[in-house]
Amino acid sequence: MVDFNDPDFVNDPYEALKTLRLQGAPVWHEEMQMFLAARHSDANDVFRNKSLGRIFKDKTPEFEWETFNWLHSDSILDSEPPKHTRLRALVAKAFNRNKIEGMRPAVERITQQLLDAIDGKVKSGENFDLIADYAEPLPVKIIADLLGFPESDEHLLRPWSQSIVKMYEVNPSQQYQIEAKKAAGEFAEYVRDLAEHRKTNPGQDLITDLAMVEENGEKLNSHELVATCVLLLNAGHEASVNAFGNGMVAALERPDQCALLRENPRGITETALEEFMRFDAPLHLFERTATVDTELGEVKIAKGQKIAALIGAANRDETVFENPDSMDLTRDPNPHIGFGAGIHFCLGAPLARLEMGVSLPALWEKYPTMQLASTPVRRPTFVLRGYESVEISI
After folding, report:
1. Is 295 a residue of the active site?
2. Does domain 7-393 have CATH number 3.40.50.720?
3. What is the DSSP letter of 56?
4. Domain segments of the chain: what residues?
């Protein structure tokens, strides 16, 4: 059975995931005490089956984990109908497609600022870090701008987020747990203070919209508003950073794909960013809990048992994708499930696509001869898969 903490597996999980997928039905993982759905059809069903809930179980002791617990239990991601229906309706009303498309000038402006800073390094003969200099700050700055966080505080956001999301890994260490509790408390207090200020001093930002939004007489309470803002930052930039970094490294390692981006970056941007999401998934595991006895993919899941969609495995399913282990930046159609499906389909998917749709061609047009300057450094995590550092030379 797969050892999710094995460094060799974390470095390249796809052969082991293929073995799981070829077993057919979801398999039981004794250590994790859950079923693993590796086929595309089964993983897709995990997202869509209404008998499987995203049930957050409070961490204990509660007095230590109080803030971390309600940041999750009062968020869209970790709630189910009717609460999820109410929260998603309120958030979607504020975080709508017009709001997202209205971010395009900000995305273009921030992209250009980052490219200008990179150009300073390049002109002085230095290499640049694709992650630290471009892929990471871009979505953080955009989400911060969207929510109305002061630019002077942007440096606080990524560390808080990274500390919280490490708890989504398999068997997080004691140190990760300590850091997550501290980050949750600090992040929640920061957003709460900002939201309270916006109620009396409204702005043009999403926090103001969330504080004011109303649907059928319902509003977000204080915990729900804070939890939504924290979720938007955590989910809203983790996927973008990792999808961009993973996709770029894979493309730069493949001369034929690199040539496509070099020759016509704008022409293939739309299909390329979808292939980035599919080929080396930024999120690999999403778990659900059976709320009643359920049958899925030929196995019976008892009430209270868990099953996880293995997204990276599903996105390499040979029954769905032609040559699934090959990167094809022109792949179309591309029915990957990198953004989830069903009621938990990623609310921020349009923003992630906008960010990559602007930043990907802009980078290749600026530096068509870029290449890997050293071996990329991968983060030692499986669930959220990405790179710590990717050194680029021109």
Report:
1. no
2. no
3. P
4. 7-393
